[in-house]
Design a protein that fits this description.
Blueprint lengths: L1 E10 L3 H19 L2 E7 L4 H7 L7 H6 L3 E6 L8 H15 L2 E9 L15 E7 L9 E4 L6 E4 L5 H17 L3 E6 L7 H13 L6 E6 H10 L6 E4 L1 H15 L8 E4 L6 E3 L18 H13 L3 H16 L13 H13 L1
Parallel strand pairs: 1-2, 1-3, 3-12, 5-10, 8-9, 8-10
Antiparallel strand pairs: 4-5, 4-11, 6-7, 11-12
Bound molecules: glycylglycylglycine (GGG).
Glycylglycylglycine binds next to loops.
Length: 351
């Protein structure tokens, strides 16, 4: 019997609705497998925790998480309680950084049964590899002066190591897929870091002569995501560009509630973390209508990471069959609740 020990952080808002849904699916998947079980240990770290303790997680929180094989996270942020930059840097970004989760993988693909807002919803299937440890997500800088002299300085960090690591990872992934890699740049407007990014991309590309490459400025690339996403296979992007592009990826699939993500630690020293692209959605929290697909697809990515690719594929198939059958939450045109959608996925898995 294989037993996986998973740390679970539902976090804020709908994280507390979609995480239990995805855990039900993982338990159903384990049942189908027969020789697999999960031990989920839940941690109540969120904005309410911050209001009580003045921090998003305890001092020894990272040490506690380190003993688990993976972290399964819902959503972080409740701006009515805690400013977003405090909650994000106190939990999500802290875990990504300290656990050296340097790569963020975010797939997007056309799903039959979901009405895409695209004018011409062609079949598309792409993966964004987002640099996850540096770039524009930086605490380097400061705010000085008062009144009309007020000033904020924000420095982005692009190291050779971090940039090359993300680009190389994306080339390796493209080689396993359709052999096409697109780089997101903005070297006409951002004077230092983006020409540097382009140079590293060009240099690394020499090691992958069979991979076809393209490079687009992020503004044009964002437009192409909407007008012709089918031209893309793997896209490599900096931290901020990757974050923005993947919200567009979610939008063209039909809902921000669908998109999954994996924060990968490459050296095996720390657990990787699995969390959907969406946030805590305070506007729909408590209504029982949050789309569980983003979290369930994220669970599928965790299964892949733990070595259960076949089972992961079964989860994806069940999920797609449920959507195709019309059992859908309101954000994708249905009337089903979070629970109804989850129950249907579990029963299809067990068939
Ligand atoms: N699902 C995790 C979550 O709450 N994400 C919200 C967010 O703003 N994330 C920013 C990021 O991924 O960098």
């Amino acid at each position: 019997m294989i037993k996986h020990e998973i740390a679970v952080i539902p976090g804020d808002g709908i994280g507390n609705e979609v995480v239990p849904a995805a855990l039900n699916v993982l338990n159903a998947a384990a049942e189908v497998h027969g020789g697999l079980s999960f031990k989920f240990t839940e941690f109540p770290w969120n904005c309410d925790y911050y209001l009580k303790h003045g921090m998003m997680m305890p001092e020894d929180g990272l040490r506690t998480l380190q003993s688990f094989e993976a972290v399964f996270l819902g959503a972080v942020g409740d701006p009515a309680k805690v400013p977003d930059h405090i909650s994000l840097w106190g939990l999500l970004i802290k875990i990504r950084r300290e656990f050296e989760q340097v790569i963020n993988i975010r797939p997007a693909k056309y799903i039959q049964g979901i009405v895409s807002p695209l004018v011409n919803p062609n079949d598309f299937d792409l993966i964004v590899v987002r640099e996850n440890s540096e770039g524009e997500y930086s605490e380097v800088g400061g705010r000085i002066h008062k009144g009309e002299d007020q000033m904020a300085i924000q420095n982005a960090i692009f190291t050779r190591k971090g940039t090359e690591r993300a680009i190389r990872y994306a080339f390796e992934l493209a080689a396993k897929r359709r052999g096409h890699l697109t780089s997101a740049t903005k070297s006409n407007g951002i004077f230092h870091s983006m020409p540097f990014w382009d140079d590293v991309f060009k240099e690394v590309s020499q090691d992958y002569p069979d991979t076809r490459t393209a490079s687009y400025h992020i503004d044009a690339l964002a437009a192409f995501f909407v007008t012709r996403p089918q031209i893309f296979d793997v896209i490599v992007a900096s931290n901020l560009f990757g974050d923005i592009l993947t919200d567009i990826g979610a939008a063209i699939m039909g809902s921000i509630g669908i998109a999954p993500a994996a924060n990968i630690n490459l050296n095996g020293k720390f657990p990787s973390m699995f969390e959907p692209v969406h946030g805590s959605a305070p506007d729909i929290c408590g209504k029982g209508i949050a789309n569980p697909i983003g979290q369930i697809w994220t669970a599928k990515m965790m299964l892949d990471h733990l070595g259960h690719q076949e089972l992961g594929q079964q989860v994806l198939d069940a999920m797609e069959a449920t959507i195709f059958s019309g059992i859908k939450t309101p954000d994708i045109g249905g009337k089903a609740s979070t629970q109804e959608m989850t129950d249907d996925i579990c029963s299809r898995l067990k068939k």
